[in-house]
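re: ur question from earlier - yeah i can do the single chain one, its not a big deal. heres the input i used so u can compare w yours
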Amino acid sequence: MKTQILAAIGESELQPAAALNAALAANDRVKYFFSLLQLALDHAEHPGHPAATLERERIACGVDDPDLDSAVASTRKIGKACRMQGAEKIMARIAADMGLMAAPALAAKPGEFTNRFKRLLEALPKAEEDVVEPNVISAMMAAGHGGPDSLHRLVMDLHKQLNALQANLAEETLDGAAAYNLDTEDRPLVLAFMAGINRTAKLKFNHPGLATTATHAGARLIIQTISARPMPM
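and the output i got, formated as C-alpha cells:
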C-alpha cells in the first residue's frame, strides 16, 4: 500500500487534476464499501429481512466485482462475530482506496493528515477468513464528532480537503461552479445543473450555502455540491 500512496503523491505533484480525480473516484468506492459493510451487519442481525445488493451503486462507482452483490445476503452471525462473503477482500480494497484518496491531501497538508491516516489505517481490521467483529466495524464507521476518531470521519475530512483542492485547481467558473478538465459537451450539463442550484438558492435562508465543483474523470462528468459546514458522507 505504501508504494501506491507514494505513486499517487508523485502523480499529484505532476498531474494535480488526474490525482484529484483518482482520489474522488476512490472516495466513491470507499463509500460503497462502507455501505456494504453496514448493510451486511444489519442483515446478520435481521436475517429474515430482504437483503440489498447495492449492484447499482457498485457499478456506478466502478467496482467490477459482481460477487459483491450477494455479500449482504450471505452474511451470518457466528457467535458475537459475523462471516461476510468477501469481507477480507473488501478491507484490502478500502485500504488501497484510502491510499489513493489521501494522496493529494497528504501532499498538500502532511502535518494535518499523515499521523492520523497512518494510525487509522493500521487499525483497519483484516477480516481474516471473512470474519468481522460488528463492534469494530461500527467504531470504524462512526461519523459523529463527539467520540473517538474513526476512519469514516477521516474520509469525511479528506473529502472536504479534496473539494478545497478542486476549487483551487479550477480553470473556469460556470455560473458559480468551479470547473476544470471539462469536455465541450460537459458545459451545457454543468450550466443546467447550476440553473437548478441557483433557482433554489433562496430556500437556504440564513444557512451556510453550497459550493459546487465540476470535472470530467474517465468517462464520467462529476458535479459535487459542498456544504459550507461539515456534513456526514
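Residues 133 and 151 are 16 Å apart (CA to CA). not sure if urs matches, ping me
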